[in-house]
Amino acid sequence: MERSIYLGYSNQIENIAVNDALCVNEIIYGEDLSIETVQQNDLLFLGKNQKLPRAFVASEGKESLVLKSLFSKREIRNLETNKKLHFPRTIKIKGQKSQLGTSVAAYICTDIFYFQDYDYNLKVKSFQINCLLGRGGISEFVDRYGNFQNKNIFVIGNGLGAIAALVVVEFENEKPVHRSRYVILARAGIRYPDDLWRSKITGKPLTSIQEQDISGARFIFQSRQPNGSGTDIFVSNFNGENMYNLTWKNESAYDGFFDDDGNEVAKWIDQKTIQYCSMTKGRREIKKAIDPLYSTPKEEKMSHPLKVFLCYSSDDKNAVRLLFQRLRSEGFDTWFDEEALLPGQDWDLEITKAVRTSHVAIVCLSRASINKTGYVQKEIKTALDVADEQPEGTVFLIPLKLEECTIPERLRRWQYVNYFEEGSYERLIRTLRARTEKLGLSNSLT
Fold first, then answer.
1. Is residue 385 helix, strand or coil?
2. What is d(CA 91, CA 84) in angstroms, rounded to the nearest whole number?
3. I need a surface site. Which of 20, 66, 113, 206 has the fewest CB within 10 A?
4. Could you say which architecture CATH assigns to the domain 300-439?
5. By the 8 A CB rule, do 67 and 165 touch?
6. How many whole angstroms from its chain centre is CA 212?
7. Whether pLDDT at 373 is above 50
8. What is the side-by-side order of every strand in the sheet holding 307-311?
């Protein structure tokens, strides 16, 4: 199934007919011994024909979803205290399709619709999809004085981060045919407490005001990519509202970010310093914060080699094995399933994890592989998803032609390597060395 499932506009999804036979049965969150399951009867569904409210956001010059307007203040307080509706960032949804022979995709809606993932198993009616809830606040982890609360991150408590809506869309022959009702979820906190920018002196979050009560302050946090290749930097209020993405660390790339009153909220002074202000009306204290990534000791940054994932078809295993050996000899930490997977491991989970923790994914192509169905296509899809998450200009996905063949349409945006041509291997190594240098990584496995 191609990436045409990436419906992005709310009217595309909301105009799809609701079918109650397509449903979310349960939501699971947590890890190891802390796993919690919320059954369908405890979930909050909107009415069958109920759509999500919108409002014009002046600072963005466009309409955005405003889910809080679905509820009264009293109902929002109930959301804050209802543990069965209050979720951390990572959740897993399970449900039932309306029929066999279809695939499903999940979307999380906060200000817009965000594609999550899809289940393309056509042979069963049940589905399972991993999702990441969007915006949230730090009130789950930090009290109003800036002190970290001694709580397990999977203990759901008070402090509403944001409201989100979950919807599942069913596809037949790659065309959307049905959607589920919306499930309303409350977002509990940011990704992890470690994502907060903290003072090196006090260990408390860096906030825009120094008063004891920080509930009126803005703070900075970051959402690191698992493979270390990119980090989104955000500034927002204590409860996660008025969030601004400061990802691009180029002070000339934009004119700053502004609130609804036209006041500048935050901007980069240079590639490591953010200037930002309080959310309190009438208060214009300016504070500067230094990116903590810049204070990492050089020795620590240089301790790991570049991680390279090899995606290939089993028909090409012999050729890819030789490539693996060459890359290993060059000092790259290369993931090759034949060498990396151990007996008894969940190979689907391990391969997905390997792609997401790699710095570069090399997709090996041949006449056999481009026409082959099966797991190699899922690997390519995962690599494409990770590539889409990278900052513009990042070298992550490299198509590598083992022989003369046609590059699949979904890979044509990336410059490929003709591995069978003279000098191509040396060009590949130069690219990997440049990526290593840019990330500040080691050139050796030892």
1. helix
2. 13
3. 20
4. 3-Layer(aba) Sandwich (3.40)
5. yes
6. 33
7. yes
8. 333-335, 307-311, 360-365, 397-401, 417-418
DSSP, collapsed to helix, strand or coil, labels residue 41 as helix
Question: What letter represents residue 170's amino acid?
Answer: E
> Using a CB cutoff of 8 Å and minimum separation of 24, what contacts does 266-272 make?
266/218, 266/235
Q: Which amino acid is at 7?
A: L
pLDDT of residue 191: 52
Q: Which residue in 200, 199, 201 sits closest to 214, CA to CA? A: 199
Report the predicted TM-score, pTM, of the whole model to 2 decimal places.
0.51
- 304: pLDDT strictly greater than 80: no
Question: Structure tokens of 315?
Answer: 């028909």
Q: Is the pLDDT of residue 310 over 90?
A: yes
Contact 275, 267 (CB under 8 A): yes
Nearest to 29 by CA among 165, 212, 152: 152
Domain boundaries, the chain: 3-191, 196-295, 300-439
d(CA 132, CA 389): 13
d(CA 15, CA 26): 25
Q: Which helix (H) or strand (E) holds 191?
A: none
Q: Cα(352)–Cα(346) distance, rounded to whole angstroms?
A: 10
CA distance 53 to 63: 10
pLDDT > 70 in the chain, percent? 70
> Which residue, among 154, 179, 157, has the nearest Cα to 168 in the 3D structure?
179
Q: What is the pLDDT of residues 55-113, one digit of tens each?
A: 655 544 556 666 777 777 677 767 666 767 777 777 899 999 999 999 999 998 876 77
Per residue in 147-196, pLDDT tens? 776 544 444 444 456 678 899 999 998 889 999 999 988 776 655 556 77
DSSP string covering 204-268: SBPBS--SS-GGG-EEEEEEE-TTSS-EEEEEEETTS-S-EE-----TTS-S-EE-TTS-EEEEE
Lowest mean pLDDT among 173-182, 209-218, 234-243, 286-295: 286-295
Relative to beta strand 103-109, strand 113-119 is: antiparallel
Cα torsion at 208, 202, 162, 94 (round to 10°)?
A: 150
8-state DSSP, 439: H
Long-range contacts of 255-261 (CB under 8 A, 24+ apart): 257/59, 258/59, 259/59, 260/57, 260/58, 260/59
Residue 52, token pair as written in the block = 């999500």
